């Protein structure tokens, strides 16, 4: 009887592993370059970095939805762009205090856990583009990176999550802890050759950086680095980047970029 139970348990565990692997492999990112900046919020007048803007990016079929992560005084990982929320310093305030004031659409200030769980719902096309914001100290930044990686792993969202940051040390920490993670630098101060040497996976620079450094886009493509640009809201700039074969274009106007792609 005990042998039968052990055999049955082994079969169940094996099948569970197969389901998990199949679920990850069945996720097929949308075949477009559209990354919604802080979610798709502008057209529908939604709050930036809200659950609603994430859902809208998924509904539109964007290949990625970007969002910003910070950590509160009590080590809660939350979604917010600015270092302050409702005039409170996020790193010096508890989540309970911050969450007393809802977003403009009535949503509670979202945690990273909530954001990822929603991002996995009814989503087979859209990457979760996780920007880890620089912290008050380099060590705290690395701690945040560790906590983000652990939470993403615990929620089984590693296959759909990519990491971007202005803090180069945060990206290097991510690569140290999880070498197969997808990372992109935002600051515009590193050449493609330096990015490649440091084993970062790509560059995601403001579109003006590529104009100042006209060889960088081609060099990134040549070295098979991820090539992304932010925050591109002008039709002429979008056309220019598409002509240069940018893999991703991060925008507050995903609907406009989709229209251009259809043409």
Automatic annotation (TrEMBL):
PROSITE patterns: GP_PDE. Coiled coil: none annotated. Pfam families: GDPD. Residues 32-261 form the GP-PDE domain. InterPro entries: GP_PDE_dom (IPR030395), PLC-like_Pdiesterase_TIM-brl (IPR017946). It comes from the Bacteria. PANTHER family: GLYCEROPHOSPHODIESTER PHOSPHODIESTERASE, CYTOPLASMIC, GLYCEROPHOSPHORYL DIESTER PHOSPHODIESTERASE. This is Glycerophosphoryl diester phosphodiesterase.
């Amino acid at each position: 009887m005990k042998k039968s139970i052990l055999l049955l348990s082994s079969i169940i565990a094996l099948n569970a592993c197969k389901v998990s692997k199949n679920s990850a492999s069945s996720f097929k990112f949308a075949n477009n370059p559209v990354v919604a900046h802080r979610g798709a919020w502008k057209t529908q007048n939604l709050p930036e970095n809200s659950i609603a803007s994430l859902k809208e990016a998924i509904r539109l079929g964007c290949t990625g939805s970007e969002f910003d992560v910070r950590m509160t005084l009590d080590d809660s990982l939350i979604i917010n762009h600015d270092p302050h929320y409702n005039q409170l310093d996020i790193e010096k305030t508890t989540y309970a205090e911050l969450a007393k004031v809802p977003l403009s659409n009535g949503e509670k200030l979202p945690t990273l856990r909530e954001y990822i769980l929603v991002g996995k719902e009814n989503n087979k096309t859209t990457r979760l583009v996780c920007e880890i914001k620089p912290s008050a100290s380099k060590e705290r930044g690395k701690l945040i990176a560790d906590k983000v990686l652990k939470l993403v792993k615990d929620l089984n969202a590693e296959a759909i999550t990519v990491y971007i940051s202005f803090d180069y040390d945060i990206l290097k920490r991510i690569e140290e802890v999880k070498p197969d993670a997808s990372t992109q630098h935002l600051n515009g101060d590193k050449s493609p050759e330096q990015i490649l040497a440091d084993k970062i996976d790509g560059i995601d620079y403001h579109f003006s950086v590529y104009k100042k450094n006209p060889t960088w886009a081609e060099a990134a493509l040549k070295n098979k680095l991820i090539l992304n640009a932010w925050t591109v809201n002008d039709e002429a700039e979008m056309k220019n980047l598409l002509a240069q074969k940018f893999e991703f274009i991060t925008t507050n106007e995903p609907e406009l970029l989709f229209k251009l792609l259809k043409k």
